[in-house]
Amino acid sequence: MIELRQVNKVFNRGKANQVNAVNGVDLRIAGNEFLVIVGSNGSGKTTLLNLVAGSILPSSGTISINSTDVTKLPEYQRSEWIARVFQNPLSGTAPDLSIIDNFRLAAIRTQAKGLNIGVNTKFKNTVKEKIATLGMGLENKTEQLMGTLSGGQRQALTLLMSVMDTCQVLLLDEPTAALDPRSADIVMKTAERLVDEFGLTAILVTHNLKDAFTYGNRIIQMAEGKIIKDLAQKEKSALKQNDLFDWFG
Amino acid sequence: MDFYLATLIQGLCFSAIALGIYISMKIFNIPDITTDGSYTLGGVITAKLLMAHQPIYIVLPAVIAAGAAAGALTGIIHTKLKINALLAGILVMYALYSINLSIMGRSNIPLTNVSTLFSLISFAADPNKNTFFVLIGFVAVIALLIGFLLKTDFGIAMRATGNSESMIRALGVNTDRMKIIGLALANALTALSGFLITQFQSYADINMGIGIVITGLGSVIIAEAFVNWFRITSVWLSLALVLFGAIIFQFVIAFSLSIGISPTLLKLVTAVFVLLIVGLPRLSFRNSS
């Protein structure tokens, strides 16, 4: 479970360009909950995701994951619980490393990176089997550099990488924003499958109202750094796609 | 001494610096100028300890530790004080000049009547050939160690740190610590070149490191050109090409001297050569696109 209490984030405090990106947010996300966050540009949704990930630390308030206070923990220490898919496929993978090396790092996300050679035949076969489940024909290209793949292929692989090691929380930061419709569909369906299969707590930030409508069992809307709407599973099920458009006036 | 053998020996001596620059510049994507100071530091410590009749098994770790400390200092300034890596390196390099001079006590230490790495091990009767064989073994061991390191989980994390920092942080790596370790390793290797060249030329000089970063940079750029041309992805092949680049670079300098270019103009010629290697592929790419 993730809990945010009175979380504030102020950028450029005391300067002319001060921005109160997140304003006193209280949010509890239960285990196995798939939360979708929508909101206009500058509403604070990505900042909220970054606060959970630890990419930025809050100006005030507390954040806990499974009752552990992680407020002051940097991103690399929160990786014990959290896996993340970035908006930009370039950010979530290392383009000059092979696919198999990228997967190796993901497989030891919560472990020490020691002086052992982990990319062995057994590991390669395991990765091939997992990649084959995507149905993208990438299982025989594991020695290829990650940078040679398309954005959609990289996002799909990033999703698989997120569950290579124990994972409790999956953060999806506009994962389909840079993808064509077909790739976006594969990525979102893969995300949904992995969330169900591994019983993950997931947070999806998106501008895509179709995705917001289709995926997740809870939805919140943010504006000016605050949560202005919060619909739980039952209310979200009753929601129509046009209602979501109405939220944005 | 045979012209080509001497050039080969120099190239091998500079292999370690080339590997160091490969780690800082290509793996970590950090332009590290500490090199000029840590190379001299390696030479100075070697000369000082050898003249104090310390054995090689004491000198070698001392050189590695000193180079690593210099690199780590640059890394700490860069990551903890958030100072640009280039400036951090310049500051440490600048400070090292005084430190090196203080260690030496004078501007030049000739090695006289001391045992060096090249006289301790005997593969051939001819001293120059012996130096060459010792260097081949020494450089091979270093390259194998670095190659092994880069294939380990730690090494993959190192390579990812310079390639996609956001990704590797999300995968549980403290990138600040990784950069400090990387710069320490790079400068330990650079100091090793100082260790080798001091014993080869039988003296250490306070100015021996001025502009030496260009030697490492040139070697890595030559290697990179081959990596791009042949689309090489293997870590082992890349390392072999860096070593090859270090030797080619020395041959270009030797060739310049052999055709009568004045030694006064040598650094100018070297700079133009590096510029050509960097610039030509880009110009040809622009023309083809």
Range of helix content of chain A? 25-40%
Q: Strand order across the biggest sheet of chain A?
A: 6-7-8-3-9-10
* Residue share in β-strands of chain B: under 5%
Structural class, from helix and strand content of chain B?
A: mainly alpha
Count of discrete domains of chain B:
1
The unreliable regions of chain B are none
Query: What's the helix count of chain A?
Result: 10
For this entry, what is the oligomeric state of its chains?
heterodimer
- The CATH homologous superfamily name of chain A equals P-loop containing nucleotide triphosphate hydrolases
Tell me the overall shape of chain A: globular
**Roughly what percent helix of chain B?**
over 70%
Q: Could you say which structural class the secondary elements and strand pairing of chain A correspond to?
A: alpha/beta
CATH class of chain A: Alpha Beta
Q: Looking at the structure, what is the overall shape of chain B? A: globular
* Helix-strand pattern of chain B: HHHHHEHHHHHEHHH
| Rg on CA atoms of chain B, Å | 19 Å
Spatial ordering of strands, largest sheet of chain B: 1-2
Report strand % of chain A.
15-25%
**pLDDT average of chain A, as an integer?**
92
How many H/I helical runs of chain B?
13
